[in-house]
Every structure is written in structure tokens, then in C-alpha cells.
What we know:
Spore Coat Polysaccharide Biosynthesis Protein SpsA, Chain A
Amino acid sequence: xxxxxxxxxxxxxxxxxxxxxxxxxxxxxxxxxxxxxxxxxxxxxxxxxxxxxxxxxxxxxxxxxxxxxxxxxxxxxxxxxxxxxxxxxxxxxxxxxxxxxxxxxxxxxxxxxxxxxxxxxxxxxxxxxxxxxxxxxxxxxxxxxxxxxxxxxxxxxxxxxxxxxxxxxxxxxxxxxxxxxxxxxxxxxxxxxxxxxxxxxxxxxxxxxxxxxxxxxxxxxxxxxxxxxxxxxxxxxxxxxxxxxxxxxx
Length: 250
């Protein structure tokens, strides 16, 4: 008997992303995976984010019968500011078996969902993640970041999940997929966190329920704009600090 593919709900939090959301939606809507929906969560934006998304939705409806439009794309609103509040709203709106997380400045390759979905054929796999590829960064930073993620994050992800350690796992915040039923068992995302460390916290909680896969092939192009704005060394130090803080927490 042929197995039906798991439905995937792609959640995209967006706060003042009018200038970036259009290419992101173009990329995710072009996925070659057969069954998925896209949920954009406008997180109390004060720019034209919602207008841009609405225009994209309207254009798709005009191009083809709304009842036949695949994949479905929805815009929802979350008035509580904060990445985790937006992710949690998207999770609650999701109808898929898998919740995929990406950011409003990400540009996934068309096989992103297909590559990741294969791992969920194993019942013990509860989440899948991969590296960021900072496509607009300086070549040196882009290359070194990928090398670090491919050759350091992956073994760390393996070691953290060893039976005698069980220290968590590695999930990249804007490049991960998690079983919806596991998120429900966890009680959703930890909305008490603002930004830094949210992915490590989620990874640690998810890993209690099964295997978390980190594979360099599941790569996500994303902007390095935050590193450019706040400084590479400062941002890197913050990420590392909160990674160890949440990983070592009891």
C-alpha cells in the first residue's frame, strides 16, 4: 500500500518584513513537496508586511481557482511581540503532521521540505535540522560559518544525544522541522524566551521525545543582516553563550 506523505505546515514569523517576505514566499511556495501549507504570522508589524502578504495571496487566487490553489497560504496575526509568541501562534494554527520553522529572510531550495521529510519515515525521529547558509555575507564569513556548522555542529548534535549524556540536541531556529504531536506534548514553545537561546531550549525539550537529526544537506539560505547590524563577534558570542547556558541547564 502506498503511504501518503505527511502534511507539513511551514510557519514564518514576520515582524516588519515587508522588504524581505516576498522572495521568501516565492521560494517556499515553489517547493516540490506534495502536501504542505504556509502560515505567515505577522507579529505586530508597523510596516506593510501584512499588505505584501495579502497581495501575494490575492494574486494566487486570481491566477487559479482558490479552492484548487496548492499549497495553501494563510496570514494570521499575533499581537504579543516576540519570536516565540509568533512561532506558538503558527503552531496552533498549523494543520500538518510536521511543523517547519523558517524566517522571513530565508530562501529555501525547492527540495528543502522533501529532503527533510524523508527522515520522518523513521518513527524515532522527532525533529530535523540543518545549517544556515548566509548568502549575502562576506565570502570568508559565509564559508567559515558553513564549515563550522557542518563539521562541528553535527558531531555536537550526535554527542549531546548519547544515552549517557542526553544534554539536548542542535536545532537551527529558522531551519528545522518538528513533529506536531511532539510539540503538543511539550506544551508548545517556551514563550518566556525572547530570542537568544530559543532554538537550544526547543532542541533540548524535543530531544527528550526521540532522535533529532542534524544533516548538512538540509541547508537554508538566510540573510546575515543581523550580524552586519550588531557585529559578527558580538552576535557569535551571544549565540555561544546562550547555547551553553541552555544546554548545561538542568
